[in-house]
Amino acid sequence: MKVTMTSDMLASANTPAGGHCYRSIRGIVLACFVVSVALSAKATIAQSADQAADSQAIAAIVNDQIISSYDLEQRVRLVMVSSGIPNTPENVSRIRGQVLRALVDEYLQTQEARRLNVKVEEAELSSALERIAQRSNMTVAQIEQFLLDGGISKSTLEAQIAADIAWQRVVQQQFGGMVTVGQNEIDEVLRRLEEEADQPRYLVSEILITFDGPAHAEEIAAGTQRLVEQMREGAPFEAVARQFSQSASAANGGDIGWVHASQLPAGVSDVVANMQTGMISDPIRTVNGFYIVHVRAMQTGIGGDPMRDQYSLMQVVLPLTPDAEPAAVARRAREAEEFRSQVTSCEDAPALIRKYLSGTSSPPQQVIAGNLEPRIRQALANVPVGRATVPLRSDRGVEMLVICGHRPTQGQMPTREQIDDTLYEQQLSMMGRRHLRDLRRDAVVVYR
Question: What fold does the segment set 7-17+26-30+306-407 form as a domain?
Fold first, then answer.
């Protein structure tokens, strides 16, 4: 497969659409905590001038705790940047209500954590930020600067992280001991998988947004449809799932792995069975929520899971500054294509890349496909061993991966322990959603 990336394509690739990532390969993944919004100095000054006034305005009151307009605007900016949704006035207006509802839920969660004396220590926040930075191929200082450049307070990100940690702890503490998975449940799953061994399987990602009643459902439906439109226009599904999904899979960007249609909720299974690879569904209404599903791949039978394929990858870089002149970008594009046409093995790659000014290579690293960011997995698709991927633009320059080795996984049935873990997480997540629904019903929430 030959894919040519022109200088125009390289230039456009330098404006990524992704958000912060919670999984990546060690030292290979290209920076994915990326800027999708650029604020001018004039706009930043104007925002600073309005900040004091915004901080006094009230967006909502949650059990006597105020969400200020400034808090809301900060979270909207964070969501826009990290979900990859273009920062236009129209998009901001469309998602503001959904972000406010999510913020109200977050306040309810933190209030419940406080009631149960569940605390998140400063060291835990620091560790979480370090993990985000490492997996994004950045430093904490770079993330802080990124937030500053976007007019986002570091405390806004920290509050979101702290609320997530605290709520997970609340749910585990309150309901973990109540969840039991019987051996008969595991037997039933295994029996169904064996019966459907020759049926199609789908590699699916999901977004779940719940509602409390018919009136709430109407409001949620409109916002969910807007999310679908944004993703179909290019916003990364994984980033949107991390920000908006209320499913346990949100932390993995909505990824639920390979499933048969029968393993999906009623109503969702019929839709998935009629979808094609790469499609994103319209919102699918179920009893208590709306699902959005993304079918990333499909196959017949148990087969090997491509997400578990093992790769040996060498990273090569042609340095280029982010603000490089078009002529320099065009030159690097030609050099990248020349390198790709010549390289045939990882033994040859270091000497070949050094032919170009400041070209570098790294030692091969062993990685699992599921730990790669989606755009990296896509770049690796159908590239044979010894050849290089399509060039990708990053802050470092033009980067490619040379495939030194590839070992596909063999198809196999999941173990009883894996099924047990999956069923446990599903039940615990359901209890957490029910508890949050109860908190909403008992709360006094006033929107301004």
Answer: Chitinase A; domain 3 (3.10.50)
